[in-house]
Amino acid sequence: NAGVTQTPKFRILKIGQSMTLQCAQDMNHNYMYWYRQDPGMGLKLIYYSVGAGITDKGEVPNGYNVSRSTTEDFPLRLELAAPSQTSVYFCASSGGALSYEQYFGPGTRLTVT
Amino acid sequence: DQQVKQNSPSLSVQEGRISILNCDYTNSMFDYFLWYKKYPAEGPTFLISISSIKDKNEDGRFTVFLNKSAKHLSLHIVPSQPGDSAVYFCAAKTQGGSEKLVFGKGTKLTVNP
């Protein structure tokens, strides 16, 4: 089991560019999440999904979009990148059904200049 | 409005001694609490959890205590080892339906040999 994988590990974007952060899990988890972590801060939820075809906003969704066409994949799209989106992005998954532990990927470090 | 607070940004202890990491919360609807450990350049990993119906949960060197009346939980690590040096995040889940977690800002633990 690879668990939760994320690509790329690092990326530098220019202001106004767009990109997609990839996330995949092989644990057959229904629930998936995207977080961002800014320096000295905790994890803030961007978007989450409770199953294929179902997504919802978290605490800080502005500037991002997601889709969930399969159970395994949960890509995060950044449109018109801004310096405020410089952060480390973590994808996570959980089994749901009273299993609350979330399993995290290694993260993507994004810099917008 | 921070619902989960970790008021100590850092903690330093000697190897072999006890480490106590604290977490306070404000939302009385939280019914499940988790501790995560994070090494640099890695994603958080689940450490230990506790349901609000319990006041203690133990797993090897790690024990979590929950004081519902004080809205306070703590993580005890005994004995502390240099490999425990990491950032520790407290997280909480709201009662009913949603699997979303709210994270604190983290406490950086350094265990000195």
Give an overview of the whole structure.
The complex is a heterodimer of chains A (113) and B (113). By secondary structure, chain A is an all-beta fold. Chain A is 0% helix and 50% strand. Chain A has no helices and eleven strands. In chain A, strands 2, 4, 5, 6, 9, 10 and 11 form a seven-stranded mixed β-sheet that branches. A four-stranded antiparallel β-sheet of chain A has the order 1-3-8-7, with no helix packed on it. Chain A starts with a strand and ends with a strand. The mean pLDDT of chain A is 94. Chain B is mainly beta and 113 residues long. Chain B is 0% helix and 57% strand. Chain B has strands at residues 4-5, 10-14, 19-25, 30-38, 45-51, 56-59, 62-67, 72-77, 86-94, 101-103, 107-112. In chain B, the strands form two sheets. In chain B, strands 2, 4, 5, 9, 10 and 11 form a six-stranded mixed β-sheet that branches. Chain A binds chain B through residues 4, 31, 33, 35, 40-45, 48, 50, 58, 90, 92, 94, 96, 100-107, and chain B through 4, 6, 9, 32, 34, 36, 41-46, 49, 89, 93, 99-101, 103-106.
